[in-house]
Amino acid sequence: MCIVENDELLRDSMVLFFRAKGVDARAFGNTEEASAALDAWPSDIVICNQELPVMDGLKFLEGVGARHPAVVKILILGQFTSLPAGDAKRAGIDEVLLKPFSVDEIERMLERRAGPCIGAGRSTGGAGGYSEEKSA
Question: Which pTM does this prediction carry?
Answer without folding.
Answer: 0.83
